[in-house]
Write a structure and sequence with these properties.
The complex is a heterodimer of chains A (about 300) and B (about 100).
Chain A: E1 2-6, E2 9-13, E3 21-22, E4 31-35, E5 48-50, E6 53-55, E7 61-65, E8 69-74, E9 78-83, H1 89-107, E10 111-120, E11 123-128, H2 135-144, E12 148-151, E13 154-159, E14 169-171, E15 177-180, H3 182-187, E16 202-205, E17 216-222, E18 233-237, H4 239-247, H5 253-258, H6 262-275, E19 278-282, H7 287-303
Parallel strand pairs in A: 2-4, 4-9, 11-17, 17-19
Antiparallel strand pairs in A: 1-2, 1-3, 5-6, 6-7, 7-8, 8-9, 10-11, 10-12, 10-13, 13-14, 15-16, 18-19
Helix pairs in contact in A: 2-7, 4-6
Chain B: E1 12-15, E2 20-24, E3 27-32, E4 37-40, H1 43-51, E5 56-57, H2 58-69, H3 73-89, E6 93-96
Antiparallel strand pairs in B: 1-5, 1-6, 2-3, 3-4
Helix pairs in contact in B: 2-3
The chains are: A alpha+beta (about 300), B alpha+beta (about 100).
Amino acid sequence: MADHRICGWHVRSAIPLPEAAPWPGGGSPDIDIRLGDAAGSLREPVGGRHGEDYVDADGSVLFTAPGVAHYRVRGGREVIVEPAAGASVADLRTYLYGTVLGLLCHQRGLLPLHAGAVAVGDRAIVVAGDSGAGKSSLTAALVRQGARLLAEDLCPLRSIAGATGGAGVHVLPSVPRFRLKQDVMEHLSLMPAGVGTTAKKIAIAWPPDLLAPQTRPTVVYGIARTRTAERARVERVTGLAALEMVRGAIFRWELAHAMGRSGAALRAAAALVTHVPCFYLWRTDTLSGLEETAAMLLERESASC
Amino acid sequence: MGIVKEISEASSLSRRQDLLEATLDDEVILLSVERGYYYSLDDIGSDIWRRMETPCRACDLFEALSRDYDADATQIAQDVLPLLREMASEGLIDVGD
């Protein structure tokens, strides 16, 4: 067992999490990750079955990563992992850093977005989009041009109770790693310090002390696989269109709905788009255009200060 | 959305529970996850929605609006009934006896 700091939480894990920062001190953990019988004590899933996933009456979730593990996520505090025969520790971690972390966010009242985020001074740029839309590559390019990493795939946002206006939302520092395709990694000269594999991407650890602290978001860009152009450009989006752009990026939305968490998530998304300007981002489809796009976003951020 | 029961002064009105609600730019936004539709209520619609946090009778709603907007209750009923019918037709509210 080892103690880590992820999203500001004290996480105690029986599964090695070498990328995560160590927890600087003692005390009881906020979240406990252990090995065990994930389906044990699962009551009749009144929340329903969603593919291979179950939602229990108390809002806990049992989901299955085929060939990897069953994961039970309960009360925002407990994670039980039941590995499949032959599952690699790296693959166990991939789902811990992804779906499990997203479900913990929902259960703990945070808004988890499929988004990368970087800090430029005390301002955060959020790049939201589905898997394959290019947010990890763009986030890595922003970091290579001097921004500080906050999140690469799962971006947790927290509303500060009682705060008003834009001061009320913060992006929390997430998992210090990138998962990139080989060609992007080589193009950005990112050297892998640790390797975990999925079918298409390579995981690269990022020094946790280089993560930015929690930061106020000042812009949200929405990218999509189909939203490409010869030269990168942005288009302001407001109102319901902005809300739907962010809602579409909410991590595991259907499961959040089955857990009874979608209302809170929608209200958090509405609060975000009310106070933070949103834009569609047309990205280029080329590696060379990646740095131009990152430079454009950083220049826009400087100009808006 | 199908045939909607006619709304009278005595009708009870209640919010449908299968909608998600948020506020955007001071207006009420409703989302039907099952249907995938957003509904944006204007100032009056948002006010009426908020007043239906607990089920109420149409006549009580008209009376409260008449009082708060300093307007004739009959006129209020004439103005608001079409909106209520539309909300019922779109599955945002339920209408009972």
